[in-house]
Amino acid sequence: MHRLFSITEQFLGYLLCGLLMLLSASVIWQVIGRYVLTNPATWPDEIARFSMIWVAMLGGAFVYSKKKHLAVTILPERLAGTAKGYLLEIFHHVLVIGFGLIGLVGGYKMTMNNFDFGQVSPVLKINMGYVYSAVPIAGFLLIGFAIYFIAQNIQSIRELHKEAI
Hints:
By secondary structure, the protein is mainly alpha-helical. It has helices spanning 2-36, 43-65, 74-78, 83-117, 128-132, 134-164.
């Protein structure tokens, strides 16, 4: 399970780097086209917007996998290394699973609706279902990472219990 987690996390990091480069390049091209060439192109704006959606959604999952997401850590830090601390973390990860399920199910419905109705972007003519599919993918990743962290916490509680005996 650890190997799958590591591979997924590493792949996600590389994918995000590529998306950030695409986002940066499209914004730079847009600025050059508008202010230097005085002939603005319309496609860089859509590429930047769609890249930003994917970076935001997948970036949230990536940051969660690194445990670097925004959090209030007063109570977890005081309970660190105790069974109560691990149980608090498990509760936190269960909440993340709940939000991940909302993203997965709601995002799946939204994505499928866009594929069914054939909504396309104005300039690039990309089906918007591809753009919106970032939501269920991020939800799926959040759920997977949370399950991995719960398994780690359960293992830590077992080790604490063995030490206490």
